[in-house]
Request: fold
Amino acid sequence: QKEVEQNSGPLSVPEGAIASLNCTYSDRGSQSFFWYRQYSGKSPELIMFIYSNGDKEDGRFTAQLNKASQYVSLLIRDSQPSDSATYLCAVDSGNTPLVFGKGTRLSVIA
Amino acid sequence: NAGVTQTPKFQVLKTGQSMTLQCAQDMNHNSMYWYRQDPGMGLRLIYYSASEGTTDKGEVPNGYNVSRLNKREFSLRLESAAPSQTSVYFCAGRQGGRELFFGEGSRLTVL
Reply:
């Protein structure tokens, strides 16, 4: 069974710090990787996706992928209280629905 | 564009009652999905439709049925609601290998 693991948290970081969110996956054939943010009472919204090994940056967000280690991470620089949310990692192995981790709850303390 | 629209947004049922959650998308998604989300359990896939005319079971299909009415619409039916089906339900759509787009969710309480 394909699995995606995330630390449930809560991960607490001070305002202005870097938040590091991690995700591991079991299917070595996984092809694409997505990070979603979900505020309490709201639906998940896409932050970033990454397909290739290495880093991908978008504003304050950086996704990092290491397929050999089956590891994908999301870095949030200059964390703001508005970044406080649950972050969901999702993995696509092709021809099957995305597999989601249970999410990491991030709390940014002002 | 409305995106992915779910109705109703809130519903209270008594045990044994039936209801249908409706989902419609105007994003030309081939694939559509129904998830439930419970505290500490993450998103769990109930059913999905990879393309118009096909449906498949996900991780937690028991107690549910689905209909892919056409490319735009994918409904989820509870024939005899149980308290264990109290949850937040999300419909989502996807085009090819791109990201999932979620509806706003439907909060269901079964008494």
